Amino acid sequence: MVASKNLIKIKKLCKTMGDLISEGTPPVWPIQIYENEWYLYKYFIRNLFDTIQKLKNKKSYSEIAKLFKNPTRIAEFTYLLFGLSESDLKPNEKITLALDIIELVKCYRKKDPFCRSKKNLILNQNQINKIIKSKNFVKIDKNLEKEKYKKLISRINAALFSYCEFIHSGIHQNGHEFHGPYKLKDGRLLIVREYYDLKPVEVWPFSKRFKYKNIKIFEIYSGIDIFFDYTNHLVCSKPLSDHLEAFYIILNGSKVINKIEELEILLKNINSYFQKALFSTSNFKRKDWIKKHMEMRYWYLKPLKKLFGKDWKPPKKQYDHLNKKAKLGLKEYKNSIKIKNKLYKSIVGDEK
Amino acid sequence: MKQILSGMGVSAGKAQGKVCLVLNRNDYSKFKEGDILVTTMTDPTMTLLMCKAAGIITDTGGLTCHAAIVARELGVPCIVAAQKATKLLKNGSEIHLCGDSGNIHLIED
Q1: A30 with A173: CB under 8 angstroms?
Q2: pTM tops 0.90, yes or no
Q3: ipTM over 0.90
Q4: Burial code of A28-58, b = ≥16 C-beta within 10 A, e = fewer?
Q5: Residues of B in contact with A236 (CB under 8 A)
Q6: What is the crossing angle of helices A4-23 and A91-108, to 10°?
Q7: Looking at chain A, which residue has its C-alpha nearest residue B100?
Q8: B61-84 pLDDT, tens digit each
Q9: Measuring CA to CA, which residue among A120, A39, A113, A52 is closest to residue A80?
């Protein structure tokens, strides 16, 4: 018997996913996502569950959440819950895993873990004030070269977004955390864009040559509505760059850039490196992409496994499993109620 | 102008230009700055083309697909889920698209 407050949490999670999936379309590059995910159901779900339970004996939810680095990477695990019947998790373990995901996300998004307010708020007021007072901000709205700034910032974001999509096999959100909008006193909006884990060398060896491990972009907008959903998609009412008023960028945690020449160099570096990365996968077959997707998922657990001296690498049986033919994944994309009910049944079974 | 197609407008603005159908990697080199990129769905390999495009039209997708997100970043008008765009639109045709209404008009075949 599941406690009613826990059932309420799970119902909210399922409704969120129902709305999210029905409003979008599943990524199909490089492999249709539900097909790609199928390969993780049998072994990775158990791996994820056991890793979290083991850590719960020593660490708080808050400490475990920090090991995942950002809330969206945790939120993305929700998609795996559709495949619980393919795993060997017992009924009570399925519910525990769903609740763990919710609690871990809540460590970041305290009041609104599902982003029902269409905001992704993870900073407190002190942190926001500190950012706003920064002298690094360049105001571009009245700058003579504002069009150049806007073009460069938009292209940098587009390039980084695409790079994240590439190394995370279509699930770009596993490589970025966009948060906000934080409403400022004058009505303007602060957005923080964190691109992180840009050099997952163990899975993508060529990323060793990429100059940037993480890139943080602070942006202030006016006259535009910006929304985020549970899995970090950014939706806006108007073209973003038209409404950008100020920004600055931090590279690798310390180097601040905000001049046009510096932005040009950054964009050139990202584009040239990304083209090399694409070239190196130009002969990739389907199975190669499935393998990378699988390895990245296990790699996300590396900081957790490190704490008890375990290797993050997938077991041999997981690699063997890639030879199987995937079952077709979630078929109903447009009906939010059917998706919600499917997910609920997957987690809770026949419990009402 | 004759309306020939419509889809979901996901990145606001209007654009006019020549259609360039991009159906596989071999087509990338044909794309010229200011063309309208027409494809089944965009992916990360097409980002540089998207930076040069005056507008983007895809057969499939929704509000949060790759084409929509990147187009909004770049401020490029974009229509997704136009369903038969890659079949009905021809290379070199001059078209007008509206990323707000989702309508596509033929100017010159």
Answers
A1: no
A2: yes
A3: yes
A4: bbbbbbbbbbbbbbbbbbebbbebbeebeee
A5: 72
A6: 70
A7: A238
A8: 999 999 999 999 999 999 999 999
A9: A39
